[in-house]
Amino acid sequence: MLNVNNLMVFYENALAVNDLSFEIKQGEIIGLFGSNSAGKTTILNTLSGLTHHLKVREQRKGGTRITISGSINYLDADIMSLKPRDRVELGIILCRERHPVFRDNTVEENLKLGGYLRKAQEIKESLQFVYELFPPLIKLRKNKAGMLSGGEKEMVAIGMSLVAKPKLLLMDEPLLGLSPHMQAEVVRATLEIRKHGVTVMMSEQYARPIMPIIDRGYIIENGTLVMTGTGTELMDNPEVKSAYFGT
Amino acid sequence: MVTNFLIYGLVNSAILMLSAIGFSLTFGLSGVANFAHGAMYLTAGFIAWMLINYLGLSPLVAMLLTVVLMGILGALIYRIILMPVRGIVLSEVISTFALGVALIEFFRWKGFTSFDFSLPPFVKGSIEIFGVTIDYQRLIIIGIALIIALFLWYFTHYTNTGLALRGMAQDEYTALSIGIESDWAAMLSLGLGAALASVAAVAILPLGIISINLGYEIFLIALAVSVLGGLESTLGLFVGSLILGYAMVIASTYLGPQWGQVVYLGAIVIVLAIKPSGLFGKYKELEERV
Question: Which of A143, A197, B38, B88 lies at a 20 to 30 A Cα distance from B10?
Answer without folding.
Answer: B38
